[in-house]
Q: What sequence folds into this?
């Protein structure tokens, strides 16, 4: 019986020792597994290239270049207001004829429409009365001078008639000015004085060369001087107006170079300079208006077209890497550092927008680090194949 208990005790002691040994080994085993996982994660970005792949890879360094930032601003094409005129009627009247359509090319002085007006008729009557009175008082003054020379009348009578002539001439000039304000030109005034017939209508003429871009009138319409009937614009140059966010408006100055891209015109770009930067911020959009003038000799740019304005900032030294040095994965950019003996390490970097096949380095890389400048794509493929194995 004692022997049996001794045997059972030995077996229990052995079991406890085995259990204790198992418990003592588990932390060390976990550490080894963690180290193994870390090594695997480290190796995930490391690669040793095969000899046949090495000739496809070119090693170099990031470079410092003079680079100008480009601010992209949504914009729109507008008519140059200095080359735009709004044409209306000088008098209240009714349109009886139209001579132009939208898109017509007109010269300065060309007739756009014709209207008739009672106000115009009254102004012509006043002019004819003033003209007749001026002729009569001038003749009376001349006769008075002849009679004074014959000692028939007194000097006071001559002075009275000369005074009447001066008043008549002043009234004539006033009536002329009134007719000019109503749109009657000098040639028509001369014809009116010569013939003595009231003109039934008057033309509305363009005041500059350009394209008819607005026509807000039809035949039979009654118009007033406040109405804008026609818009005539010279489109050989136009404005491109953009709205710059207030956070970056401090970097925009008059005279900066601008590149204009209009999606509707494909790959065609236009150059210009900023001619105006607003001094106020739009409280609704929190933007500052920027205006540039663009030459438009072929009239490809149409008012109200949508465009993108690329504002070039001043040149400054910037660290850049070629586009061929960068690989992208999961919305992150990477470059490969050279570690010698055909070994490379993939590291993340933060890059700016591409400029002429170069990418500005924001962080993650220095000018002294040796990197793969060409062939990063092939190297990344090798890394992925090694990962699958």
A:
């Amino acid at each position: 019986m004692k022997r049996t208990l001794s045997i059972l005790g030995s077996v229990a002691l052995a079991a406890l020792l085995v259990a204790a040994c198992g418990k003592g080994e588990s932390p060390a085993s976990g550490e080894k597994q963690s180290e193994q996982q870390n090594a695997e994660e480290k190796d995930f970005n490391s690669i040793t290239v095969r000899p046949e792949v090495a000739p496809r890879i070119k090693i170099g360094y990031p470079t410092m270049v003079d680079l100008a930032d480009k601010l992209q601003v949504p914009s729109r094409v507008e008519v140059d207001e200095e080359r735009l005129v709004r044409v209306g009627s000088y008098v209240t009247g009714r349109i009886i004829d139209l001579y132009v359509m939208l898109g017509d090319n007109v010269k300065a002085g060309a007739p756009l429409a014709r209207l008739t007006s009672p106000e115009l008729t009254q102004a012509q009557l006043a002019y004819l009365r003033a003209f007749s009175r001026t002729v009569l008082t001038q003749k009376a003054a001349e006769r008075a001078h002849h009679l004074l020379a014959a000692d028939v009348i007194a000097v006071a009578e001559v002075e009275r008639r000369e005074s009447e002539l001066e008043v008549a001439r002043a009234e004539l000039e006033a009536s002329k000015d009134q007719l000019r304000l109503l749109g009657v030109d000098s040639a028509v005034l001369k014809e009116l004085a010569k013939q003595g017939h009231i003109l039934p209508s008057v033309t509305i003429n363009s005041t500059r060369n350009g394209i008819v871009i607005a026509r807000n009138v039809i035949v039979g319409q009654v118009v007033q001087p406040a109405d804008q009937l026609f818009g005539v614009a010279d489109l050989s140059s136009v404005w491109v107006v953009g709205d710059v966010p207030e956070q970056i408006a401090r970097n925009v100055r008059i005279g900066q170079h601008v590149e204009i891209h209009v999606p509707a015109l494909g790959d065609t770009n236009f150059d210009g300079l900023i001619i105006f930067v607003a001094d106020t911020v739009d409280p609704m959009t929190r933007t500052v208006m920027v205006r540039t003038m663009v030459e438009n000799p072929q009239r490809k740019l149409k008012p109200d077209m949508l465009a993108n304005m690329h504002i070039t900032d001043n040149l400054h030294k910037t660290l850049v890497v070629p586009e061929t040095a960068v690989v992208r994965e999961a919305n992150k950019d990477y470059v490969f550092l050279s570690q010698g003996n055909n070994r490379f390490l993939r590291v993340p970097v933060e890059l700016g927008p591409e400029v002429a096949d170069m990418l500005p380095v924001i962080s993650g890389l220095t000018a002294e680090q040796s990197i793969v400048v060409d062939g990063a794509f092939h190297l990344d493929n090798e890394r992925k194949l090694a990962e699958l194995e």
In short: The longest strand covers residues 63-79. The helical segments are 2-44, 118-149, 155-181, 186-195, 376-388.
